[in-house]
Each structure stands twice: as structure tokens, then as C-alpha cells.
Amino acid sequence: MLQKALVVVLVLASVASFMSCGGTSSHFVYAAIPDANQIAVFREDPYSGILTQLSGSPYTVGDGVRAVVLHPSGKFLYAANPGQNENDVSLFSIAGNGSLNEVFPRTPVGTLPTLLAMDPAGGYLYVGNALSNTISVFSIDSGNGGLTPVAGSPFSIGLSPSSMQLSPSGNYLYVSAPSSTGVIAAFSVTAGVLSSSPISLTPTADNNPTAMAIDPTGTYLYAANGGTANSISIYTIGSSGALTQVPGSPLADASHLPVALITDPTGQFLYVANQGGSVSGSGSGPTGPNIGTYSITASTGFPAAIQDSPFTTEAEPVSLALDPNGKYLYVGNQSGGVQAFGNSGGSLNSIATYPLGNGITSIAILQ
After folding, report:
1. Could you give the 3-state DSSP secondary structure of residue 195?
2. Residue 40's pLDDT is what?
3. Is the model's pLDDT at 17 over the cut of 90?
4. Beta bridge mates, 190
5. pLDDT, average across residues 275-297
6. Pick from 243, 112, 226, 138: nearest CA to 185
7. Backbone angles phi and psi of 11, in degrees to 5
8. CB 3.0 to 4.6 Å from 205: which of 57, 76, 248, 250, for a disulfide?
């Protein structure tokens, strides 16, 4: 009898270990709500993708909160506040149940901070300041999350950043900006300090590159051309960090106004948020806003639309986030909520929409 009981205990322990290793613990979803100066927090059911808003959520933050980013330790969340009399960054500590507690004082940055990026090790926070044409960079205290400006910060870049991406190595920072042609500036980064000038300035397909994404290996960079081109530019990232456009780029987007991009954790799929419907002559896709999904050819980085793409969304999708397992895609909509999709091989099925009464501009997910 004792032997049978021991077997049962071992089996249960093995099941618990398997569930833990399989990433089935709850995740937490954080959404910035600029009009309400709030951050909403949800618990994600790892088996269904269904969200449940935490008690106490939403949490008050600085005026016009625009972007949120999580520290890889899971202990801290940072929020960029570009509103009137703000121009600062909030630091929140994260409790074990996902709830937030702001740590004051807020950290001043440049004018109109709208973008945040963090290196994979969680050593440095980068803030894109759209009106002062600068990048503020801070070293992060691993113990309390506190921010200290690195030498030379803020760095003048002579461009108004519209999106910002760090390479997975943390050695290169890419900044897209509108101009007469649109441009992506690449900067080398050493201990958070940007190179004095870009190592490359790469023209984009139109004058308004709205978003960028980099695959997990740091081999390819994708840029959404959301002005009049309605296309996606694809670049290889060289050993020096410079960009080279791949043959066949840009790829014509099947829909209007691509505004956000994300690759999945395996680098096999690319997801594109389009605020407009199908481009004339592109086929029988959705007539309204949608998510286009593409499989990525490993040898070239070139995206190919999957068979049943694109997928209809709520109005004005503007932000995308995948859970750490890539099973669920969450879409932030400027018209008022978070939409959850199940994801299987790039094919999406709508699970639910969670209205928040105000537009969402940024989503981050904590495992």
C-alpha cells in the first residue's frame, strides 16, 4: 500500500512539474489608457486566453500615459507619460498577483515621451522623445528598479522618433522617423550610450514608417509603411548593425494603413495590425480593420500571407502583444478595449473583446 501511495505522489509531482515547465502559470496583461491616465491589468487564463481584470485595476498613472514596458525580472513596469506638465516616466513595482504600486518620484525625460524599449538583460531603459528629437537612456537598478541617466543622456538624434526597436543583443538601437522619404536610423549602443551619429540611415518605402519589429534571432527587421505605400519593408541586419533591403522588398500589404508589427517567439510568423480594410484589387479580405498574418521564410526573412489571413478586429487596432507561449495574441484598440485571439500556426480565432471605455496605445505581457 505504501508503495502505491508513493507512486501516486511521484505521478502528481511529475504532472505539476510538467505544468510548470510548460508555461501554464497565469500571465498578466498590462494596457496603457492615455485618455484616462490609467493602466489596466488583467490575469490571462493560460488554457483559454480569457482575461479577468484584477481587483483594483485600472491603476492611476501620469498624464497621457502612452507606452509601457516590463523588466525581464517581472518585478518592475515602466510607463511613459507625455501629457501636459508631465514628460516623465513612472516606475511601478509588481506584486506576485500582478498588481501595481507606483514608486515615486517620477523620472523627468525629454519632451513628449511616446516610446519605450529595454535591453533583454534589463540593464537599460530607452525613452523616445518625439518633440525634443532625443533618446533618453537610463541604467536600471536591479534591486529597486530605480533609473539613473547614462553619460550623455538625453541623446540628440535630429529626428522625431515614430517607433524604436533594440536588437536582441542590445548592441543596436533602430529609430524610425517620418521625413520626405521616411528613414530608419541605426545607432550602435555601448553600456546604454548611443553612437554620436547613426551607423546607417536607411530610406523606407514612404514618408511615414509607423512601426518596426525584429525577429528573435536579430537577423531581420520589418518596417510598416503606413503613409500611402501600404507596404512592409524587410531588411537584413548586418554584423555592423547596418540594414540591407532584401530582394522583393517592400511587400505590398493587402490592407490599408499598417500601424503595428510583431513576430512570434519562434520567429516563424509576422503579425501586422491594419487600421484600414483591403486594398483595392487585393481580393476579398475584410472591409475594415484587421490583423494580417504571414509565415516567414527562414532563409530570406520574406513574409508570405497565410491562407485565411487577414482577420477582422475591432476599430483602430494600434498595439499588438503575444503571450510568452505564442498561443494568444492581444490587440489594443484606440476605440476602447483589448481584443483576445487564439493563435495556431498564424491562424487567428477571436476569443473575446474587453471594453475599457478609452483607447489602448500599448500592451505588455508578464509571464
Report:
1. coil
2. 97
3. no
4. 193
5. 77
6. 243
7. -65, -45
8. 250
Lookup: cell for 43: 490575469
CA atoms of 76 and 70, how far apart (whole Å)? 6
Number of H helices, E strands in the chain: 1, 33
Residue with cell 486594398: 279
8 A C-beta contact, residue 334 and residue 38: no
Tell me: the pLDDT tens digits for 35-71? 999 999 999 999 999 999 999 999 999 999 999 999 9
Position 146, amino acid:
G
- Give me the pLDDT at residue 286, please: 65
Residue 31: how many other CB atoms lie within 10 Å: 30
In what helix (H) or strand (E) does residue 19 lie, and over which residues does it extend?
Answer: helix 2-21
Q: Check: CB of residue 364 under 8 Å from CB of residue 77.
A: yes
pLDDT reported for residue 282: 52
Record the cell numbers describing residue 168, joined without a space.
536582441
Note the residue count of the chain: 367
- pLDDT for 284 equals 56
**Which amino acid type is present at position 76?**
F
Least confident of 28-32, 138-142, 323-327: 323-327
Integer CA distances (angstroms), 146 to 66, 78, 152, in order: 20, 10, 18
| Cα 128–Cα 134–Cα 140 angle in degrees, nearest 5 | 55
Name the average pLDDT for the chain.
Answer: 90
Please give the Cα distance from 273 to 290 (Å, whole number).
Answer: 6
Please list the residues that pair with 189 across neighbouring strands.
Answer: 194
Look at residue 16 and tell me whether its pLDDT is greater than 50: no
Q: Which grid cell sits at 39?
A: 493602466
Single-letter code of the amino acid located at 145: G
